[in-house]
């Protein structure tokens, strides 16, 4: 606010007197004035935003640098990082779809002996199980669970 008032009155009064009045250093005034001139939207930012949205908001600074260089814009990685931070561009990590079901095979199918009777009369007559894949930083973990249908407790 102080800077805008100073800039408004710059031509009508001496900058030194106005800086004293608003308790702003002269170097701070001129530095702020230079920052305002440099705050215009540069063409690199426009191209950066276009590439970022084209990628589905998935590209980080490294991929954006290579994409911009393919378009003939020479820019460094750290400048791209700074421009992304100023523009508020944060890449979103998307999960990969993995198709784990293959229903087209000629292998023998086990007989259905449970026949949808999920309430057995005594323990250890009917068990059910499932397997799940958990993605971690080091790779995939496999979680297998066996449950007794009578007590509904995990037994393995």
State the gist of this model.
The protein has 156 residues and is α+β, with helices and mostly antiparallel strands. The chain has six helices and three strands; from the N terminus they run H-H-H-H-H-H-E-E-E.
Give the distance, in angstroms, between the N- and C-terminal Cα atoms.
68 Å
Would you tell me the structural class of the helices and strands? alpha+beta
Overall form: elongated
- Mean pLDDT comes to 83
Helix content: 25-40%
> In percent, how much strand structure appears in the residues?
5-15%
What would your notes on this structure say?
The protein has helices at 2-9, 15-22, 26-38, 43-54, 61-70, 77-87; strands at residues 127-136, 139-148, 153-154. With 156 residues, it is an alpha+beta fold. The protein has a 3-stranded antiparallel β-sheet with strand order 1-2-3, with no helix packed on it. Strand 1 (127-136) and strand 2 (139-148) form a beta hairpin. The longest helix is centred in the first third of the chain and has 13 residues, at 26-38. It is elongated.
Describe the SSE topology.
Layout: H1 2-9, H2 15-22, H3 26-38, H4 43-54, H5 61-70, H6 77-87, E1 127-136, E2 139-148, E3 153-154
Helix pairs in contact: 5-6
